[in-house]
Amino acid sequence: MQTNFFRQIAKLDLTGDLQIILRNTTDNSFVLSVLLNNEQCGDEAKKMIPPLNLRGTAEELDNGFFESISMPLQTASGLMVDMESFMKQLEETKQKSAMEKEKTDKENKEREAKVKKVQRMLAESRRT
């Protein structure tokens, strides 16, 4: 028997680890929990994304599995990628801001030193 399950998963083009848990229930059906986890995403808010839970018989899950998970998982994947991108941009901005503050502070100190030097020279020239 040949299946195309993994090819279908690959077509989803998800970023992260896909965790699938399948549990039998007492009435010949299953509970399926699907969770996408992206370790590259440094934003802790990713932990608030709940798993996608599906219930149904084997036939129902066979027939509707990919239709049920495609959009939610692709949305979660994109969200986590965007969150990581945002975190990186935020960090870059923070570093640039610190660099700009340092540059401005240095320029101000140099300017103050020049002003003091000119004031000293003027004061000395007035004494003579």
End-to-end separation: 105 Å
Mean pLDDT: 88
Which sequence of SSEs, written as H and E, runs from N to C? HEEEH
Largest sheet, in brief, is: 3 strands, antiparallel
- Structure summary, number of beta strands: 3
Estimate nothing, just give the exact number of structural domains: 1
Describe the structure in your own words:
With 128 residues, this protein is an alpha+beta fold. The protein has one domain. Helices cover 61% and strands 16% of the residues. It has helices spanning 5-12, 58-127; strands spanning 17-24, 30-37, 52-56. A three-stranded antiparallel sheet has the order 1-2-3, with helices on one face. Strand 1 and strand 2 (30-37) form a beta hairpin.
Secondary-structure blueprint:
Elements: H1 5-12, E1 17-24, E2 30-37, E3 52-56, H2 58-127
Antiparallel strand pairs: 1-2, 2-3
Offer a quick outline of the entry.
The chain is an alpha+beta fold and 128 residues long. The chain is built from 2 helices and 3 strands; from the N terminus they run H-E-E-E-H.
